[in-house]
Write a structure and sequence with these properties.
The complex is a heterodimer. Chain A is α/β, with parallel strands linked by helices. Chain A is 32% helix and 30% strand. Chain B is of the alpha/beta class. The termini of chain B are far apart. The chains are: A alpha/beta, B alpha/beta.
Chain lengths: 280, 462
């Protein structure tokens, strides 16, 4: 018998990226590409939003990067352990209707998150180019799954150790130059990368949907902390998004807002790493 | 102790302002047994009981006072609990001065009986002595789903459980209580009290499912299909209104909801909290309601100098007078007749000042209050590093968007009959801020109670 929010499966994708499946049947039955969950690892833990990477067998799959205290604590849990809280699916699903030909671009952790979007597009009958970028060959994750999720997979490495040599936007530029007739582009990843993808696509008249990742608490529209400025209007990423038209998003403001607690986050991470070091 | 002859109420102890701004412990310390008996003796035992008419949940106040006067606290608790599922909460946060206490005959000659303080004493006494009133009618075979575990939902749940219905409360957050948990600060309403009141409901058989967002995890229609015979929506007014002035996205600008949630729900005031809140030297809070007072007093306790900017005058402050008084005692400055124009940032995108303008009161507006009008040329800057906007909330749209056929007002509130909570959908009831717009805890409790009676009537006839 599975327990509430039990980690049913856990894998390390690379030294900094974990992949878990959490038992949460109601969420698994509902979640669609582009939506997210909010979890807490412990009773006094922080609430953190993470994108749904897929759903199967009553479980929700979440891929996370070990960047802060909470994700480091999350990574210490093993199969059979339970999360304290797990709620979703939050946000609106990614719009894929009417898209016949799409290019999906992922950077960093975003690579994993692009997978459900690519898959949903492909299942809806679209032709999908999936561009994913990593720093170097050793960090490439989920290659086979990604390949299956799209029509053509384009792997890029910053150092040229595998696939296309350079950033994902370089490969994107190449594809757009060859044939710009995409109905839609989707970008998931760090804000500067999504900004660059939007700019590149914009120049070819292709609309880009970006997945915003602001600081968030409740995820239901209650706190307003996740506000982003879109087309001059204040939007709440948790209920109006997280997907928005990249051309309308104020990325610079979003980058500044995401740095609000940088000092606190660094302190927390360090304190956590120290405690762990002391235990070994 | 003989009944006091004078017209003043028995004073109650409070933490001194200089001390309390250094902690988050409760400000009002409550009556002792002697004090509460003395205060209850002031009740004139009016035959027509005007105070009861002033109570949204109809607590039998004179009977309770008589029991307290006689030292029979258990009986007093039983009397309250027949009418009020959450007395330890309402005794603390009700605006009694505009409700029961406003109707108290004593008030004509002097100070009304301190009904709230007496209620709080009785509820706390019951908790400390494990006295409960958890009796329920024989179990019925019908189930009701309650959406939201705030004051409306908890009250509705308690009433229905008493009647024998199977009740499940669905809560979006990880903790039950709604605004009682995320909004009202520890120093006004200790969270341990909320937990105990919730635990009492659970002992009555109420199931509470946290981490479940109705409108996302499940829809209202799915609840009805899943075997619930009726649904009560008490999801609150959880969508903060923005000021719509330049600079709202700067670092250091919070909605009161976010600021209070970080502090109250996530415990950001504690040294070891996992959840951060920005350290502020000088904070401006915009708004004049109870939420503005709560935010200001939290900011003060976190070490900031705090001022409250409100566009009308002192008389018009919507907050309870006691809250304004407490805020002033704690050294919070009031910039009255002041409206914000723009939040100014530094080169790093952090708040450095709030540009304001002075106002004067003109003709009454639609709300009957005199409309504030800008005084040209009176612009000035408040040097602050944090701005908290506490200008109100609107109904949360998640449920409305996912429930076909649920009629709403143009402000997005669910249309519900005042007396019954009945909505445009059969078997679906609503009450509290989702139906009435932002109001008070006790009004939400009253709505939850009336809806429970209407749901009982509906299910009994079904």
């Amino acid at each position: 018998m599975r327990k509430k929010y039990e980690i049913v499966r856990k894998a390390a994708l690379n030294p900094t990226t974990g992949d878990i499946s959490v038992y949460a049947p109601r969420i698994a039955a509902k979640a669609k590409a582009g939506q997210f969950i909010i979890l807490r690892v412990t009773e006094d833990g922080e609430r953190i939003p993470l994108t749904v990477a897929g759903c199967a067998d009553d479980c929700v799959r979440v891929i996370y990067q070990k960047v802060g205290r909470t994700t480091l604590e999350l990574d210490e849990l093993q199969e059979g352990d339970c999360l304290h809280d797990f709620v979703g699916p939050l946000g609106t699903p990614t719009e894929i209707e009417g898209v016949r030909r799409a290019v999906v671009v992922g950077g960093g952790l975003g690579c994993a998150i692009t997978m459900p979007i690519a898959k949903a597009l492909k299942e809806a009958g679209a032709e999908v180019d999936l561009i994913i970028g990593f720093r170097t060959k050793d960090l490439i994750i989920l290659q086979d799954e990604m390949k299956a999720a799209c029509t053509r997979l384009h792997i890029c490495t910053d150092d040229g150790s595998y696939g296309y040599s350079g950033f994902g936007t370089g490969k994107l530029q190449e594809l757009l130059d060859a044939d710009p007739a995409y109905d839609r582009a989707y970008a998931v990843g760090p804000l500067p990368m999504m900004k660059a993808v939007t700019k590149t696509c914009s120049a070819h008249g292709v609309k880009t949907i970006v997945s915003m990742n602001p600081i968030m608490i409740d995820g239901t529209g209650m706190c307003g902390g996740c506000r982003v400025t879109v087309g001059g209007e204040t939007k709440f990423a948790c209920v109006d998004g997280p997907d928005f038209d990249g051309e309308l998003v104020d990325f610079d403001e979003a980058m500044a807002r995401n740095s609000t607690y940088r000092a606190f986050e660094a302190e927390q991470r360090e304190a956590h790493v120290c405690r762990m070091g002391g235990m070994q | 102790m003989p009944a006091p002859k004078n017209n003043a109420r028995t004073p109650a102890a409070e933490q001194a302002p200089a001390l309390r701004i250094t902690n988050f412990k409760e400000v009002a310390l409550g009556y002792t047994e002697e004090e509460v008996k003395a205060e209850a003796s002031r009740c004139l035992q009016c035959k027509n009981q005007p105070c009861v008419g002033g109570c949204p949940v109809g607590v039998p106040i004179p009977q309770m006072m008589a029991a307290v006067r006689d030292g029979n606290f258990a009986e007093a608790y039983r009397l309250i609990s027949t009418a009020n599922a959450l007395p330890a909460i309402s005794g603390r946060v009700c605006p009694q001065e505009t409700q029961c206490e406003a109707k108290c005959l004593r008030g004509r000659m002097g100070e009304p009986v301190a009904i709230g303080r007496v209620e709080r004493f009785v509820a706390d006494w019951a908790m400390q002595n494990n006295v409960t009133n958890l009796e329920t009618a024989p179990k019925k075979d019908k189930r009701v789903a309650i959406v939201g575990s705030g004051p409306a939902g908890l009250t509705c749940a308690g009433q229905l459980a008493k009647m024998g219905y199977g009740v499940t409360v669905f809560e979006a957050l990880h903790t039950a209580g709604g605004v009682l948990s995320y909004g009202i600060p520890e120093f006004r309403l200790p969270k341990a009290i909320v937990r105990k009141e919730v635990a009492n409901l659970e002992k009555m058989g109420v199931e509470i499912e946290c981490n479940t967002v109705i409108g996302k995890t499940l829809s209202v229609d799915e609840l009805l299909e899943d075997g619930y015979d009726a649904v009560f929506i008490g999801s609150g007014a959880g969508l903060p209104s923005m000021m719509r002035i330049p600079g709202e996205a700067l670092i250091g600008v919070y909605t009161a909801n976010e600021f209070l949630t970080r502090i109250n729900l996530m415990g950001a005031y504690r040294e070891d909290s996992h959840t951060p809140v920005l350290k502020s030297k000088k904070t401006a809070v915009i708004g004049g309601g109870n939420v503005a007072m709560d935010a200001a007093r939290c900011a003060r306790r976190l070490g900031a100098e705090v001022c409250i900017a409100y566009r009308r005058g002192e008389e018009e402050l919507p907050a309870r007078r006691e809250e304004v008084h407490h805020a002033k005692e704690e050294g919070i400055q009031f910039e009255l007749l002041t409206a914000p124009l723009e939040i100014l940032g530094d080169e790093n995108g952090r708040v450095r000042a709030l540009r304001c303008i002075r106002m004067e009161l003109g003709e009454p507006d639609a709300s009957g209050r005199r409309r504030p009008v800008q005084i040209p040329g009176s612009e000035f800057e408040l040097e602050v590093d944090t701005v908290i906007s506490a200008i109100g909330t609107s109904p949360n749209p998640l449920i409305v968007r996912t429930t076909p056929g649920l009629e709403t007002t143009r402000h997005g509130a669910v249309v519900a009959e005042e007396e019954t909570g009945k909505t445009s959908r059969e078997g679906v009831y609503a009450g509290g801020d989702i139906a009435s717009g932002a109001a008070t805890v006790i009004l939400a409790m009253g709505a939850g109670k009336r809806a429970a009676a209407a749901i009982d009537e509906y299910l009994s006839a079904k």
